[in-house]
Amino acid sequence: MGFCDLHIHSCYSDGTFTPTEIVEKAKEKNLCAISITDHDEIYAIGIAKSYGEKNDILVISGIELSAMYNDTEIHILGYLFDEDDKKFSEKLKEIREYREERAKKILRKLEDYGFHINFNFVKNLAGQGAIGRPHVAQALLENKNINEYKDAFVKYIGNGKPCNVPKYRLNPKEAIELITDAGGIPVLAHPGNIRDDGVVDEILRFPFGGLEVWHPDHTSRQIKHYLSIAEERSLLTTGGSDNHGHRPTKAPIGGIVVDFSAVESLINYKDTHL
Fold first, then answer.
1. Do 109 and 244 belong to one domain?
2. CA distances from 219 to 101, 149, 193, 222, 225 (A)
3. What pLDDT is stored for residue 202 in this prediction?
4. Does residue 246 share a domain with residue 148?
5. What integer is the mean pLDDT of 189-209?
6. Distance of CA 260 to the CA centre of its chain
7. 259 beta partners
8. From CA 249, how far away is CA 105, in angstroms rounded?
9. What is the pLDDT of residue 218?
10. From CA 218, how far away is CA 74, in angstroms rounded?
11. Best label site of 4, 12, 32, 34, fewest CB within 10 Å?
12. 260 in the same domain as 187
């Protein structure tokens, strides 16, 4: 039937494209299906679904959650969940509220470096979406505190840098249950970024439904490797561009794709297992 991009971020998360722009770009690339997998946020899905119907693009619900396994941060994608699930919505609200407090703490730390950024300015940059470090970085850039967007992370707010504040992290069990309890399918995102296959093996002992095999950060060798792991463990396989719009991004929308059979497999899994 065609190809799909199942890992895209919108302006309601840390991307810059609106949901309608994402659908339009997917149509330009002749994609037949997409998933917007914003961090801790699902607002874009309904907009994209409605616009997708008018443009013959199937939009399936998606999200990306952060979790901690021992000292390793992992990302978990969720697909085909019920966007109206009350427990799911309440937990996401709690995480978004933490994001706001985290942003305020980061701004207070930046003041020690002489950078005075108003929280409302950062909040306006985030719009209706969940506030994240990319919005703080953008504020620093627009305030001329840094010369390049990436400098914010390299010098100040990246992991391990002096102005960073840890993000809200679930443990893998909590994240997986949050997705499955809402009728969704949990997928381990970009396992190659974990950089330790022993840890990947341990993490996959949790009840994941799938593994993201195709990702811009994965080499051809890693793709073959994770395909074999998925086959051994009877896991679904997914993939996508991890596009973040105009911000420094992994690949353009449609730059990494999977066959529509991946979407059919997700739908079939939901129908038979959930």
1. no
2. 37, 26, 11, 5, 10
3. 97
4. no
5. 96
6. 20
7. 3
8. 26
9. 97
10. 15
11. 32
12. yes
